[in-house]
Give the backbone structure.
Amino acid sequence: MGHINRSFGFCDARRRDSVQGVIGLCSCRVVAVLNTARSLNTMTLRGNKTLLGGEFALSPTNAESSLESRPEISVYWIPGCSSCVKVKEFISEHGLAFESLNVLERPEAMEEVTRAGLRGVPAVRRANTYAYAQSLDDVAALLGVANKHTKLSCDVLFSRWDDILEKTRAIVAAFDADVLQRPVIPQRDRTIRELCVHTFQVAESFLRQVADDTIDARAIYLDPRPDIQTRADMLSYVDDVRCEYRNTFIPANSSAKPDYLNTHYGQQPFAQVLERGVWHTAQHARQLDHVAAGIGFELQIPQALYLGLPIPNRLWS
């Protein structure tokens, strides 16, 4: 299997080594790098008790207080993060009250996450136990609720991802250099260029997980790629990712897949990681589609491509 072009893609072990510094970063860029990698799906912070509380955003003073005075459930998130939006909706759909902590506004909340042994957000706390929120199955187990979502087959997901990447390329191709440097949303320091890159990095990181057993794919999808600046740069990178994806997974062939993949949030079923990659890409593609519509372009992605995917109802936060 050919890897992505060396000029613009995550091409080989040397480039992977060069971006190891980002593996301890969450998208908000305030997470400290931990000295020891954790592979557990949930972590327990000992010596604290909690009481059930209402749903509200804490003030900075309260967020630093003991867990004894805090709600039983906390969600740690950042604006524009697709998994953050999804986990908040998932918990709300089960009628559970939770403390909402935007770690860009509450750096002390991010410190709670890192002290618990997690290396990024979204994360969920119940009492003194924490879990990464990338897997809703893990969140459901932590909270004692059911995740009743029925997944599409792997073959359907492979094909759906290809279609979404194709539509997203058309969206990205409409952005000139000026548009690429504009901020996406005011609540977060992220440009349209960075969101375009990140959207395709989700697929790139999945390719590396499958081909190279890359455990912490965030070394890829949190790399800001300052080498990609112009529309030509962007399309060269996008086409490299799409080419490798199609060569690897199209036509869809689920018989060649492993049963499990190693991730920074624990060993996960292949189907779970695949589905997360597809809907993660779809949510960001949906965001880019609306950004393009906001500057006068027609929406590119038909609603049919979202059907069956557990994308959030909300767009940004």
